[in-house]
Specification:
The protein is mainly α. It folds into two domains: 42 residues, no CATH class; 55 residues. It has seven helices and no strands.
C-alpha cells in the first residue's frame, strides 16, 4: 500500500503535511496529553528554545498597555461633563444594588456605553 502525501507549498514552510481528512478533524496543533513527560525528552537547548518562544508568544498576545493616567483623567472628566452628577450617583447606586447595566441604561434613557463610562469612573476613584 502506497502512502500519499500532500505536496509542499512555498506558502507553508513546515515540512510536515496533514491530510485533508485529518486537517478538518484537527485544524490546530495539539499538545501531548502528558506534556510533563514529553518535555523531559527535550535536551537543554531545545527546552531553552521552547521557553523563549513561549514567552515571546505570551508577550505578543498580551493586551496593549493601558492608557496613560492623563488620558484616563480626561476620560473621567468627559463622563462627568456628559452626565449630571446626580444621574451619575443614581447609576452607581443602581449598579451597587444589583441592577444590570443594560437595565440601568433603559431606565435612565441613556446608552449602555454611558452607563459603563459612569461605572468605570466610579471604579477609578
Amino acid at each position: 500500500m502506497r502512502r500519499e502525501s500532500a505536496p509542499l507549498s512555498s506558502a507553508d514552510p513546515s515540512p510536515y503535511r496533514v491530510s485533508p481528512e485529518t486537517e478538518t478533524a484537527h485544524p490546530r496543533y495539539v499538545l501531548p496529553k502528558d506534556l510533563d513527560a514529553a518535555i523531559k525528552h527535550l535536551d537543554d537547548q531545545q527546552l531553552d528554545r521552547l521557553v523563549s518562544v513561549a514567552l515571546e508568544e505570551r508577550a505578543r498576545r498580551k493586551k496593549p498597555p493601558a492608557a496613560d493616567e492623563g488620558q484616563q483623567k480626561r476620560h473621567a472628566e468627559e463622563v462627568s461633563i456628559s452626565l449630571p452628577q446626580g444621574k451619575l450617583n443614581a447609576i452607581r447606586a443602581a449598579f451597587k444594588a444589583g441592577v444590570t447595566p443594560a437595565r440601568i441604561a433603559r431606565e435612565f434613557g441613556i446608552s449602555r456605553t454611558d452607563v459603563q463610562r459612569a461605572l468605570a469612573g466610579d471604579a477609578k476613584k
